[in-house]
Amino acid sequence: MEKSILFICESGISASLFVSKMLESLKEHGLNYDVDYAPVQRVEAKLSQQHYDVILLAPQIKRYEKELRSLLEEKSHESYVSGIQDDEFVTMNIERILERVR
Questions:
Q1: Which of 94, 10, 17 minimizes the C-alpha distance to 60?
Q2: What is the CA radius of gyration of the chain?
Q3: Percent of residues, the chain, with pLDDT higher than 70
């Protein structure tokens, strides 16, 4: 795997569609990234199991960014954290998001 990405969402309802679109786009670009998702309540468990190079925050999760960064520091994880803008999420503009994480 070139990179591992964790997409954090509120409850996971729209996450599977978002991750599917992301995997489709990665495949089109010939990128071999591992993409996973978790609702915000399961982030600590996910970070205990694996290190992620990139953490993407759904628009409704941005309010947890400070706590997430503290958790990453506590677990000695050095991950790039990026919030997804409302318009990127609604339109599933994966290309624009990938520009930030490559």
A1: 10
A2: 13
A3: 99
